[in-house]
Amino acid sequence: MKKVLPFMLILTAATVSTGEVFPRVYLADGNTPLELADANMPFVYRDIMVGTKLTIIVDSNIAEPWSGSLAIADANIGYGVLSARGPKAGEDWSGSHLPAAGDEAVVWWWVESGIEAFDLYTGSTGIQAEDWFIIDYNAINIGTCNVGFYDYGISWDNPIYYLKFSHVRTRDFNEDTKVDFSDFAVLASYWQRGCSEPSWCEGADLDTDGNVNFDDLMLFANYWLEKTQ
């Protein structure tokens, strides 16, 4: 995996040890951490609903030039999607690199050979050991999506690790971005009724067993008051 930028010569490739630059995953508010599925399994996160938006912040405890990327490849494409923040100046998504990333920092989207990625480059001066980059993530289909985190000072071709997301059916049946009493009313309206694909009773048959019952109610309650955007 490699994307060469025309201005790459102004950047100094820095070899850093794993953990000095690392991603943190939050809900869309950018403040609430997304819980892990298991405290003993780093970067494997608890299930999120289709339609959920996350914020990935790349943080650092060093103040040195760095380059890397967040990427979705091959079979994972179509389940989750990464997006950067504007304004966009040329090829650079300037809203996705923060002041601590230094002067001339760059975020560049590219797609090539079954990979969709955002390259992340700090500047060569003005770098601070704080939050460097911010990239958004959206769960768009039921299934799993692994987002590779690359440190180009270590390897251009292999991620340091994957951020692992699992997407489940939405409980936001009326698509108003929040799971609340309006969605519960939809579930209640189909209580003990038979369901079939493709609608599965407007999504209320969450386990798709052909009936809306207590199993679906429990699955629904797990996401009470969660937001999908």
Written overview of the protein:
- About 7% of the residues have low confidence.
- It is built from 2 helices and 12 strands; from the N terminus they run ββββββββββββαα.
- Strand 8 and strand 9 form a beta hairpin.
- The protein is elongated.
- The protein has 2 domains: 161 residues, Immunoglobulin-like (Sandwich); 41 residues, no CATH class.
- The chain has 229 residues and is mainly β.
- The chain has a 6-stranded mixed sheet, with no helix packed on it. The chain has a 4-stranded antiparallel sheet with strand order 1-3-10-5, with no helix packed on it.
Q: What is the CA-CA span between the terminal residues?
A: 31 Å
How many helices in DSSP terms? 2
- The amount of beta strand, in percent, is 25-35%
> Strand tally, please?
12
Number of domains: 2
- The coarse overall form would be elongated
What is the highest CATH level, the class of the largest domain? Answer: Mainly Beta
Helix and strand content put the structural class at: mainly beta
Largest sheet report: 6 strands, mixed
**H/E element string?**
EEEEEEEEEEEEHH
**What value does the Rg take, in angstroms?**
20 Å
Q: What is the CATH third-level topology name of the largest domain?
A: Immunoglobulin-like
- The CATH architecture designation of the largest domain is Sandwich
Going across the biggest sheet, name each strand in turn: 2-12-11-4-9-8
Q: Roughly what is the average pLDDT, rounded to an integer?
A: 91
Which residue ranges are poorly predicted, with pLDDT under 50 across at least 5 consecutive positions?
Answer: 4-19
> Approximately how much helix is present in the residues?
under 10%
